[in-house]
Every structure is written in structure tokens, then in C-alpha cells.
């Protein structure tokens, strides 16, 4: 093999072409924010589901529920709005297709799906941008 033949060999990590104009530092920080909010949103959604089961299935009268249960849905809503902002931010930076963005955004509304979607999107972005 000549020296020119050796220069064309690449490692598997370098084999995936990075999209033109990709700022990996911005993508990495956007991915971190998205991952944190995906977990927070998922946890609060599970707490909200537990609250709904307690309030509507275990109590005879929902008016007997403690007043602080009212705030669980609001907290989840606030974190979900932040999740949407950071999902859209990451989608813009990584140039996701609209369908990918919508599916990822809706993952915060179905219990356990935010954890699954976060795993797949993180793997996808890390592979695409060699992070």
C-alpha cells in the first residue's frame, strides 16, 4: 500500500460525516439541557399519574384530597413547557425533520416515553455529530 492509500483509511467514529456548519459545542450544550429536562419532565409526569390514581381511584370523594396535590400538575406543566423550549432548541441546532421534533416534543406527555425518547435522540445526536 502506498502512503496515499493509508491516508484514506478512517476510524469508525470519523466515518460518519458531520453536517456542514455544525457547532458541536452548542449542540452538546443543547443536548445536555434537553436530557435534563426530559428526565425532570418524565419524573413529574409519573408523580402526576400517581396523584391522579390516588385522587380519583383511591379516595371516595376527590374533595378530600390534600390541597397541595393541586400543584403537581402545575409543576409538571411548567417543566413540560421548558422541555418544549429545549427540544425545539435542540431540533433547530441539529436540523431535525418536523416529524422528529413533534414526536420528541410529545414524548413528555406519555408516561415513561420521555425516558425512552431521550435515550434514542441522545444516541442519534451523538452518532451524527461524533459527540
Specify the number of helices: 6
Total discrete domains: 1
- Measured as a percent range, the helix fraction is over 70%
The value of Rg in angstroms is: 21 Å
What is the arithmetic mean of pLDDT? 85
Low-confidence stretches: 7-16
Kindly describe this structure.
With 131 residues, the protein is mainly α. It has one domain. The chain has helices at 3-7, 12-15, 24-58, 70-94, 98-106, 113-129. It is elongated. The two termini are 32 Å apart.
Concise summary:
The protein is mainly alpha-helical and 131 residues long. The protein has helices spanning 3-7, 12-15, 24-58, 70-94, 98-106, 113-129.
Please tag this protein with its features.
131 residues, mainly alpha, 6 helices, 73% helix, elongated
Topology diagram in text:
Blueprint (H helix, E strand, L loop, with lengths): L2 H5 L4 H4 L8 H35 L11 H25 L3 H9 L6 H17 L2
Helix pairs in contact: 3-4, 3-6, 4-5
Amino acid at each position: 500500500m502506498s502512503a496515499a492509500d493509508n491516508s484514506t483509511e478512517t476510524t469508525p467514529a470519523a466515518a460518519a460525516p458531520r453536517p456542514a456548519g455544525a457547532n458541536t459545542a452548542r449542540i452538546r450544550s443543547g443536548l445536555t439541557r434537553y436530557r435534563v429536562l426530559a428526565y425532570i419532565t418524565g419524573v413529574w409526569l409519573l408523580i402526576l399519574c400517581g396523584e391522579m390514581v390516588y385522587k380519583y381511584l383511591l379516595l371516595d370523594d376527590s374533595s378530600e384530597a390534600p390541597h397541595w396535590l393541586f400543584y403537581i400538575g402545575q409543576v409538571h406543566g411548567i417543566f413540560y413547557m421548558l422541555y418544549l423550549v429545549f427540544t425545539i432548541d435542540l431540533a433547530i441546532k441539529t436540523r431535525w425533520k418536523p416529524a422528529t421534533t413533534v414526536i420528541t416534543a410529545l414524548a413528555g406527555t406519555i408516561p415513561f416515553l420521555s425516558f425512552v425518547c431521550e435515550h434514542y435522540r441522545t444516541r442519534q445526536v451523538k452518532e451524527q455529530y461524533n459527540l
